[in-house]
Each structure stands twice: as C-alpha cells, then as structure tokens.
C-alpha cells in the first residue's frame, strides 16, 4: 500500500515537473502547424490527466516529454476527427497524422523548442495589448485563467473571454508562429519583453506577498525572461530586462519592515538585498553592454546598478543615476523618466533644480493623476521648505495611492511637515 | 491564407489633391498591383466608385428599404480592395503597408472565411 502511494507521489511529482518544464514547449510545438493554441492546450491537459492515471501504475516513462507529446497528438487528432467538418480541419488533421515523415523523425530527436515562436505569436501587434501578458502566462506556463484573472484584477469570465478571443484570432487571422524577419525583430521583441515585464510588475505591486493572487507572478515573469534570454542570448535588451527584474527581485525582502511598513529604496537595509540575484543581474548587464546596442531595459537596469553600489560604498551613486535617467529621457521622451530624473538631480544639485525639471512636465496630462509625480513634488517641496505647497502635494499623492503601505508612509511624511 | 485588404481613405481629401499628386498615386497603384501579380499573391482587386454612387438596401418586416448612400457615414470611405493569398498575417500586413493609400488612409486586413 505504502509503495503504491509512494509511486503515485513520484508519478505526480514527475508529471508536475514535466508540466513546469515542458508545458509551453509542448503547446508551442503542437500548435505551431495548426496555429490552434486552444486545441493544443486541450490535448495537452488530456495527456497530463492520462499521465497522472497511468504513470503510478506503469511507471514514469524514460522521456516524460516525448510520452506526453505522443498522447497529446493522438488526443488532438481524435478531437479533430470528432469535429472535422471542413476542408481546413482535414488539412490540419493531415499535418498531425503520425504517419508523416516529420513525425517519425520527431520520435528520434528532441522536441524542438518553439516557445519563442509562441511568445512572438502571443505578443503580435494584432493581439490586443492588455491580453498579451496573460496569454503568455497561460500558453507558455499553463497558468489557469482564473488565477491570471485575479492577478490582473479582471473578473475570471472576462479574462477567459479575452484569452479565447486572442487564441481564436491567432488561428483565424493567421498570426504566424515564427521569429520575425530581421528588420522587424527589434520592434516585435520589444513587444514580447514589454508583455513579460508587465507580468513581472503585476506581481511586484504586492511586495510582501500578502495577496495570494499575486504571489508568483514576479517569479513567472522572471521565468519567462530567462527563457527569452536563453533562446536569444545575443539580444542585449532581453538580457537587460532580465537584469532589471533580478535587481528588483533582489530587494524584495527590504521593501517592507518587520511591521509591514513601506521602506523607500533610499532607506532600505542593503544587508537584506539578495546578493546572488544582484550578482546575476550585474553579469547579465555586462554581457548586454558587450553587445554594444543600448536600450531602455539596459538603462533601467543600470540605474538599479547605481543604486546597489550602496552596499559597498554606503551611498548611492546619484550623479550616475541622474545621467542614466537623462539618457533614458532622450530615448523614450517619457514624463515618468523625467520625474525620476528630477529626484536624482535634486540629490546632486539641490531641490530647486529637481523642481525645475518637475515643472517642465507639469503640463503633461499623463502626470496629472500619477502618484509618483505628486510624491516626488511633495518630497522636493518639503526639502526646499515650502511647507504649504508640500502639504497640498502630499494630499494629492495620498489620494492617488493604491497601496495601503505606501499610503501610510506618505501620511507619515505629511504629518512630519 | 487569403486576406482582403480594404482600402479606406477620405474621398474629400482625395478630391482636393492636386492632379499631379493624384497622378503619382495612380502610378504607384499600377506598380503595386504589378508587384502583387509578380509575387503570385493577387487573387482579385477593384477600385470602387465614390460613395455618392452608393445605395444601401435592407429588408425590414418583409419590406425592402432602399437608402441613398453608403452603409457607414464616416470620415474615411471604402475605396477599393485587393484579395491576396499569402502565407500568414505578417505577409499580409507587409503588403498592406506597401499599398499607396496606406500613407494617407487606412488599410484594413481581414482574413477570408474559407468555405
């Protein structure tokens, strides 16, 4: 009895490991030719079910991945036989028939990794922007629609509908599963990276991990980032984005104190930073800069580097931070970057210079309801002794803040005026 | 896969164009159509008469209503179309971007519902 339980556990463990490592690879491979992501996912979940039933009895196969794919393929063919009503479906069926030469070759070699092609399909500009990151999380990592929905603060039925609409569009509109042409690669890769980073920051908004809905999205974002960096090791921005995420993740433990209160970066205890992650981030950034094409993510990761210098020197390299934000501002023209630059410049040249930069973006409609603008403004006004104006700016920042811990921090700052 | 490239542009803006500019656009359309033919992508394509010549029909309660004008009253009008056969959406989007009207109008790319 004990043995059966043990082998059931082992089989479950093997299936879960295979799910973690092979899910996206198998979905990508199965849907590459038919472009039918939904059908591939259905076939694969049937294969995982079969694995959970059969492996405990028959033992774990030598190659769980190949076993799962064989079962999923049969499943996909059966499903298509049941629904095959048109010529198009018959064509798809032929593509998947195991008798084709390509499939006989598959049995002899490793399953090709089409996950990158799948990521590019999920991030295609023809797919609605807000669903790109959720679609990647679902197709490449196999997260269920319900947990994605709660992490993105959307009702599960809405998220389910968006995901199936996106999968239908991939199929019906003929969105390709391939690496873009060389001239399109930078732009399309940006879209992939942006979606992955969106998944990461979605989890980041709950640093204490108190909200179970967000608990693993940062990890999942890093996992996707590692996948892209591994598959495209010569794309500096892919490396830069991974470095940025690792730097942010390294400081996770320092972002809240023992009582759960928000600790701003400048007051964090560097001993709480994860040095392994920081070192990995620094190596990636170094690797990226050797490729000699600068970009947004590399610059943002470099800003984080300038911050973590503090663990050796005791202080932040503010001139470097200001300079890097200057380069970012030139590259992106973003008012958000100007806000960060204003704070860094104020550290080097005084609050008045920082306020001048803030004034230069004050008319931009994008900053009117942007909490960091008002928080930065309040902070610099406070430093320059303009109490009343600082009080008003703090009030505005507090009113715009979502995170209760950050809100409490801002309230303390305001009360200390 | 087959796609329809629907060419939307403002008829008013086109009418206001100097003849030389219009001539250049028509010449570009000739070259574009030739390129589609040479690529083996062209299935069909026509230019449409202006919407002032359009008539819309619908049947309501068994009675047919005939209306003067196009279906949608918008800034841009459907002025023509191409049906092309290319491997995937990316290829269709590249052809759409090359269409001369894309520089001042909009090209909607729709997959054809295969029967």
Descriptive report:
The complex is a heterodimer of chains A (417) and B (115). By secondary structure, chain A is an all-alpha fold. Chain A is built from 21 helices and no strands. Chain A has helices spanning 2-34, 37-58, 64-83, 87-96, 101-108, 115-122, 129-141, 145-151, 156-172, 185-204, 217-231, 236-250, 275-290, 296-308, 310-313, 318-332, 335-349, 351-361, 371-383, 387-400, 404-415. Mean pLDDT of chain A is 86; it is low at 97-108. Chain B is an alpha+beta fold and 115 residues long. Chain B is 30% helix and 36% strand. Chain B is flat. Chain B starts with a strand and ends with a strand. The relative contact order of chain B is 0.32. The interface between A and B is medium-sized, with 13 and 11 residues.
Query: What series of H and E elements makes up the topology of chain A?
Result: HHHHHHHHHHHHHHHHHHHHH
**Number of helix segments of chain A?**
21
Model regions low in confidence, pLDDT < 50 over at least 5 residues of chain B: none
Taking all Cα atoms into account, the compactness measure Rg of chain B is 16 Å
First and last CA, distance of chain A: 69 Å
Largest sheet of chain A: none
Compact summary:
By secondary structure, chain A is an all-alpha fold.
Keywords:
heterodimer; A: 417 residues; mainly alpha; 21 helices; 72% helix; elongated; B: 115 residues; alpha+beta; four-stranded antiparallel beta sheet
Blueprint of the fold:
The complex is a heterodimer of chains A (417) and B (115).
Chain A: H1 2-34, H2 37-58, H3 64-83, H4 87-96, H5 101-108, H6 115-122, H7 129-141, H8 145-151, H9 156-172, H10 185-204, H11 217-231, H12 236-250, H13 275-290, H14 296-308, H15 310-313, H16 318-332, H17 335-349, H18 351-361, H19 371-383, H20 387-400, H21 404-415
Chain B: E1 2-9, H1 11-15, H2 19-38, E2 42-47, E3 55-60, E4 63-68, E5 77-85, H3 89-98, E6 106-111
Antiparallel strand pairs in B: 1-5, 1-6, 2-5, 3-4
